[in-house]
Amino acid sequence: MKKVYGALFALMVVCSFIITSAVPVMAATSYDVVLYFPFSRYPETGDHIRDAIAAGHSSICTIDRDGADERRKESLAPYPPKSGYDRDEWPMAMCLEGGAGADVRYISPSDNRGAGAWVGNQLEPYPDGTRVKFIVQ
């Protein structure tokens, strides 16, 4: 009986080693600052950010103000303007993660512009290269 238990234990150890070595270890996503986005103030933008992150876009924005204009052109190019709406993009153009392939949604100008001003004011003190994790609440 001891031999059976010993063999089972050895088999478990070997299987455990094989299983754990086959599972890729993902690097921890790091960030410098957490920004709690106020859903109650900007619900359309908040919904868009949540949905885009749930669809696989990054919740982290690496600030890069200098490239924002070019990334905005890239992300908005496939989406023509619509009267009465702004085109909201996630990740935002000011983020290195933004640009071509960003999620774009038509939302009300007041929500989009208010949210943009709020985010801009919150991130103003931080230099380019700062990694900001967005949490909608």
From TrEMBL:
Secretion signal span: 1-27
Entry keyword Signal: yes
Region (Disordered) location: 64-87
Basic and acidic residues: compositionally biased ranges: 64-75
Keyword Signal: yes
Highest taxon of the lineage: Bacteria
Protein keywords: Signal
Protein's UniProt name: NucA/NucB deoxyribonuclease domain-containing protein
Taxonomic source organism: Laceyella sacchari
